[in-house]
What we know:
alpha/beta; 3-stranded antiparallel β-sheet
Amino acid sequence: ASSHPQMEEGPLLMGSNCRAKGAAPGFKVAILGAAGGIGQPLALLMKMNPLVSVLHLYDVVNTPGVTADISHMDTGAVRGFLGQPQLENALTGMDLVIIPAGVPRKPGMTRDDLFNINAGIARTLCEGIAKCCPKAIVNVISNPVNSTVPIAAEVFKKAGTYDPKRLLGVTTLDVVRANTFVGEVLGLDPREVNVPVIGGHAGVTILPLLSQVNPACSFTSEEVNHLTSRIQNGGTEVVEAKAGAGSATLSMAYAAAKFADACLRGLRGDAGIVECSYVASQVTDLPFFASKVRLGRSGVEEILPLGPLNEFERAGLEKAKKELAQSIQKGVSFINK
Ligand code: NAD
Ligand code: LMR
């Protein structure tokens, strides 16, 4: 038996009274890359989510320690999985799989510079999902998201399991940042602000729709330029501040937990769950695009129209589409080369 009771060989560790009641009702969620900078705080937040009954933590390093630590929280069950031989057990039976596995940027790098390492990681993990939990909802965080989501789609197509409604690129951090920065400019509590952010998740592909902010408001052109640039470069702002120690982890874990919770509420059948996400889409002529989607029992149940764009946003959309088309093609070619 393992010296770590909550690791794969051991019994499933429950939060409380498990002998009397068995597993609590709820969803089974796996985090792949769970010992990383995003993975650890995300594991913490998902362990606190009352919709989660069982949490699986998978990584190629350090899951025994992270799992032992998280297992002492008096919430649902958690189990750890270490290394490729345990990937299949980590995935079997999951309703939702969240993927923050992969290397982060250092100053001076673009997200696309991560492609060479992270594309292969995304492929391996998605092959596991296709085999062990083909019906799970998949939330892709690993960068470059503009390419890793198309990679996941191609892996699932090859395996014959692709359901575009169940594959979602996580762009929530762009919305979270946009809400924060717009709240600062307007003097509003960011919790009361909602900014749609469309396109993708890198540089100019991140397109905040400042003409559609809720509550309705107006900005000067200086404010539009400042806000658009700060939202597009929010990731770089953190990468530079961390000075070589990685990219956003805490705000990302918050954003990923918020998005995962929305997916779980959709799965439960709650009405009116709308989030921005990078998904297979016909809202533009590109095969993938981030925009507002309605989440439900089968994942993405509806892609909402972009709504009216002003001239500045229409110009931004053209720039975004140009870069996105290349990133999508790069991901598709990686699997089909
Ligand atoms: P990190 O290096 O701190 O953690 C990554 C974890 O992935 C590590 O624990 C590592 O062991 C693990 N890993 C590596 N290969 C693996 C494999 N084959 N299987 C399972 N796990 C594996 O990095 P981080 O800061 O947590 O960032 C992770 C990724 O998320 C990066 O690619 C980063 O660019 C991306 N990211 C995306 C967003 C977004 O908005 N979508 C935001 C922030 C970061
Ligand atoms: C972010 O937006 O913070 C992430 O994509 C990480 C990065 O490399 O900027």
